[in-house]
């Protein structure tokens, strides 16, 4: 059972050491000498641009009601599709719909499809993500670099980003399920989670596994992922999170994911690490592209979007297995 907390309590509990910039507030610590102080890579962001939730709602409603429009959008990225709606039929998977965009996928959408979806919010959504990237990504990257004393800009030259919209809609195969998004840790460097005011996002307390903290529905949160954990030698922790659904209540969110450049070897950028990594990680045997692919299979299984042919390929099914790959234990 998660413990509900007010916004102020959340700030005190999960972000005891704050560095404030003009736009960003990051959980921080004064020195990497004490690893405890560097744990809790949680940020509360005061965004310069708010998500266009009205447009996001329209876009989901339109794609769900118009399979032809959904197919046209998915044809821009046939490998995985863009609009994911497995929860309509699959009651065990995460009970949500998603729209997965990125700068690369955006460029693949035909002019005709773009024009047909413009009045349903697609352009507003892409503008929002581009503005957010411009206003916040380098600042957050720089702050993570400061709190870990590691220059992360050297492995983020390509601005490897993904944009995700989530619709925790009551009209799924399992309307009474509380599972909106199963517990997981993001693969990349950090993620910015925007919410529409509806609670549901929960974070596992970094130093108390199994203790889930409810995040206020109006908070914009920055979480670090596995890549940040590895590159900083464990100085920034990867944060597990999940979304609990309130039956009958619709919740929308927008997430911007930032990851290292795809060819980067996932190994600590320092010889002074806080944890002991596996020989695969220390040996530089894992690169970002491979790691993303492996993690992606696990996500798609949880979200019900894994194709039948892929089911036997993925060797990872739980965070514990990822942890074994990274830490070797
Ligand atoms: Fe996540």
From TrEMBL:
InterPro entries: IPNS-like_FE2OG_OXY, IPNS-like_sf, Iron_ascorbate_oxido_reductase, Oxoglu/Fe-dep_dioxygenase_dom
Domain Fe2OG dioxygenase: 158-260
Stored Pfam families: 2OG-FeII_Oxy
Domain of life where this protein originates: Eukaryota
Thylakoid among keywords: no
Keywords per UniProt: Iron, Metal-binding, Oxidoreductase
Keyword Oxidoreductase part of the UniProt annotation: yes
GO molecular function ontology, one term from the record: oxidoreductase activity
Family to which this protein belongs: Belongs to the iron/ascorbate-dependent oxidoreductase family.
Name of the protein in question: Fe2OG dioxygenase domain-containing protein
Organism: Orbilia blumenaviensis
């Amino acid at each position: 059972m998660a413990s509900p907390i007010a916004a102020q309590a959340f700030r005190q509990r999960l972000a005891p050491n704050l560095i404030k910039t003009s736009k960003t507030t990051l959980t921080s610590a004064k020195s990497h000498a004490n690893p405890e102080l560097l744990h809790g890579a949680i940020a509360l962001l005061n965004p310069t641009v708010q998500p266009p939730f009205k447009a996001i709602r329209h876009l989901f409603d339109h794609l769900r009601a118009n399979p032809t429009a959904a197919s046209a959008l998915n044809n821009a990225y046939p490998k995985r599709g863009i609009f994911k709606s497995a929860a309509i039929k699959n009651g065990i998977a995460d009970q949500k719909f998603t729209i997965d965009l990125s700068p690369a996928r955006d460029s693949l959408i035909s002019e005709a499809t773009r024009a047909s979806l413009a009045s349903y919010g697609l352009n507003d959504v892409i503008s929002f993500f581009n503005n957010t990237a411009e206003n916040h990504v380098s600042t957050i990257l720089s702050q993570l670099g400061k709190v870990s004393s590691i220059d992360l800009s050297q492995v983020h030259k390509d601005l490897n980003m993904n944009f995700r919209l989530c619709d925790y809609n009551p009209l799924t195969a399992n309307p009474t399920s509380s599972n909106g998004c199963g517990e997981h840790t993001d693969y990349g460097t950090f993620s910015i989670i925007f919410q529409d005011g509806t609670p549901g996002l929960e974070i596992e307390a970094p130093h108390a596994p199994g203790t889930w903290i409810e995040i206020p529905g109006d908070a914009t949160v920055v979480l670090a992922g596995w890549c940040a954990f590895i590159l900083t030698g464990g100085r920034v922790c990867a944060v597990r999170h999940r979304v609990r659904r309130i039956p009958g209540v619709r919740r929308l969110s927008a997430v911007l994911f930032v990851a290292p450049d795809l060819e980067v070897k996932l190994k600590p950028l320092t010889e002074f690490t806080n944890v002991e990594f596996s020989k695969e990680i220390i040996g530089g045997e894992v690169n970002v592209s491979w790691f993303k692919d492996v993690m992606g299979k696990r996500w798609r299984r949880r979200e019900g979007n894994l194709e039948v042919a892929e089911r036997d390929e993925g060797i990872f099914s739980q965070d514990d297995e990822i942890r074994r790959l990274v830490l070797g234990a």
